[in-house]
Amino acid sequence: MIIKALIIWLLIALAETIQGIIRIKFVSRKIGEPLAKKLGIISGCCLIFIISWFTIPWIQPTTIIDSLLIGLLWLFLMLSFDILLGRYVFHYSWKRIGYDFNIYRGGFLAIGMGFLFLAPTLVFVMRIN
Question: The pTM is what?
Answer without folding.
Answer: 0.92
